[in-house]
Design goal:
The chain is α+β, with helices and mostly antiparallel strands and about 550 residues long. Helix content is about 55%, strand content about 10%. The protein has a 4-stranded antiparallel β-sheet with strand order 3-2-7-8. The chain is globular. The N and C termini lie far apart (about 70 Å).
């Protein structure tokens, strides 16, 4: 019967074309068959495997990301698990995940996936990074809960997942639920961690496809999984590079603008202004090489599957790129670096049969298509903007009950430190703004009009002409509620209650310092002030255009909450 016949490759199907007679005196149909043999992206089996795996990925990511977002009130409970069971969306997804574990317990084993331990070690590095990050985060002073049971269960599921891979499905669900607590009432950034969730979603989708694929479809192999994992991470570089390319970023970008913006936000905050300007001049001297080098590297992600050596070099170079980014901004994409290193290690030590399956002309052309269309496939972050000379910063000041005033470090606001380091507070004032965090803008006109050495008058004119206000009563209410509860619980406990010692905690995503005196729990906080500062980098100096208190929040007692 037809469905029992072996699948034929595209080249086999097209082979009769080479024997077709000539049409006229000048057209030889053989050239068409040769062209199709050379440039066809994959045979039918490869297309089936790729499409089914992408469908499994999309289903796993959508199901586990969207349905695991509990309401804010759920995280005030001492048991997140109890809240999951008593709410029907998460209870339904939990039942689906448990069913998946039940049916796949004996059918899905590490030994059946690959002959060596490469896949287990790779997935272990990804899942272990998430387990580490979300089991040792600091006591959540907003909710006033430690959620110790969920932390212990997360580690147990990770350990169990290294024994039975199906346990990584409930592990992924639980880590999603834990992470969603940081979405409320403030907005959590996913840029630094999304790729790790996506890799695990890809793995869970891969297991689901292996378990429930149609009988006449080919088995999705470890090479199919690694192929899409490489495409996914490469897309996280290519799409930002493509965004910069079409925006003309390399023509106008000045990385010294970014360095000064980072300095104003606390990176190398111990430097004097003169020292910071000296470093900025050095960066400006090397600007063309760094700008064009980073752009070309990001765009190279499109062809990273050209061959094994090039792919390894690409991911190692991306680690170097993150090192440069950290050096100039204090922003450390350490989770991306772990993934880059893990991919490079697998490629470096994998056996030849695996490499032969992974790097072929068919897979290369398919990878180009997947990465080029990754905006619709993986939804990688855009990460393309212009860095300007105009900066908006927000600082927190703590006034204790004894009247002392301290600067609150952004890194003090754990586990919400990334949100405060990114300065997402334009909603607190009715001023117009032309740039977002770290002096960035996506508006070409703003970039061009501020380019060079803008004066105070120029900056204010651009802001009034092209700026927009982001004032929001709803966001202000959420912000006030967060500050009140956070510091009220801190006052009651007098410490942030780190789960593990500082030297065992994962690296920070954004590093910064604030001037002395810094608040380090020296007394109970009676009042929090939010100070807005607008600065203009003019190459030879940094001019303060505005400095004012935009919010004062009295800290109530626990009983008042």
């Amino acid at each position: 019967m037809l469905h029992n016949k072996p699948l034929q490759s595209t080249a086999t199907i097209l082979s009769p074309v080479a024997t077709l007679p000539q049409f006229g005196n000048s057209v030889d149909s053989g050239w068409f068959a040769n062209l199709m043999r050379r440039f066809a992206p994959a045979d039918i089996a490869l297309w089936q495997s790729t499409i089914s795996l992408l469908a499994g990925f999309a289903l796993a990511r959508t199901l586990l990301f969207k349905t695991t977002r509990l309401p804010e009130s759920a995280y005030f409970s001492s048991s997140i698990l109890a809240e999951m069971v008593t709410r029907w969306p998460t209870a339904l997804v939990l039942a689906v995940v448990i069913s998946f574990v039940y049916f796949g317990w004996s059918r899905l084993r590490w030994s059946d996936f690959a002959p060596d331990q490469a896949l287990r070690l790779f997935i272990g590095a990804v899942a272990g990074t998430l387990a580490w990050t979300f089991s040792v985060y600091d006591f959540n002073l907003y909710y006033g809960q430690l959620h110790l049971t969920e932390r212990v269960l997360l580690v147990a599921l990770f350990a169990g997942g290294m024994w039975r891979p199906v346990l990584l499905a409930p592990f992924l669900m639980l880590v999603y639920v834990i992470t969603h607590q940081f979405d409320q009432p403030l907005s959590c950034t996913w840029t630094d961690k999304r790729v790790l969730f996506d890799i695990l979603s890809l793995f869970v989708g891969w297991m689901a496809v292996r378990q429930w694929k149609p009988k006449n479809w080919p088995t999705v192999t470890a090479s199919d999984l690694f192929f899409l994992a490489i495409c996914l991470q490469a897309a996280n570089y290519f799409i930002p590079g493509f965004g910069k390319l079409i925006a003309g970023w390399a023509v106008v970008e000045r990385l010294d603008n970014l360095f000064i913006a980072s300095y104003l936000n606390g990176w190398f905050g111990f430097l004097s202004q003169a020292e910071a300007l000296s470093w900025a001049r050095l960066i400006a001297d090397w600007n063309p090489m760094m700008v064009w080098g980073s752009l070309l590297l990001e765009l190279a992600g499109l062809v990273c599957l050209l061959n094994r050596r090039w792919c390894i070099v690409f991911f190692l170079a991306c680690i170097g790129l993150h090192g440069m980014i950290c050096l100039t901004t204090g922003i450390l994409f350490w989770k991306w670096m772990i993934l880059d290193l893990s991919l490079a290690a697998v490629l470096a030590f994998a056996n030849q049969n695996f490499i032969g399956e992974l790097f072929s002309a068919r897979r290369f052309w398919l990878s180009v298509a997947v990465i080029a269309l990754s905006h619709y496939v993986f939804s990688p972050p855009w990460l393309a903007w212009y860095d300007t000379e105009l900066n908006e910063q927000y600082h927190l000041e703590a006034v204790t009950d004894s009247g002392e005033v301290f600067q609150v470090p952004r890194t003090f606001m754990v586990p919400y430190e990334v949100y405060f380091a990114q300065n997402k507070f334009h909603f607190l004032t009715q001023d117009k703004y032309v740039n977002g965090r770290y002096g960035t803008t996506s508006n070409w006109d703003v970039c061009r009009k501020l380019d060079g050495q803008p004066t105070r008058e120029t900056a204010e004119a651009v802001r009034e002409e092209l700026g927009t206000a982001e004032y929001s009563d709803q966001k202000i209410s959420g912000f006030d509620r967060f500050i009140e509860r956070y510091f009220a619980n801190l006052n009651a406990r007098t410490t942030q209650h780190a789960v593990v010692p500082a030297f065992l905690q994962p690296p920070q995503h954004i590093y910064s310092v604030v001037p002395e005196p810094r608040y380090e729990s020296q007394g109970k906080v009676a009042l929090i002030r939010v100070i807005h500062e607008r600065s203009l980098y003019q190459r030879d100096r940094i001019e303060t255009l505005k400095r004012e208190v935009v919010r004062e929040i009295r800290i109530p007692s626990i009983s008042e909450l």
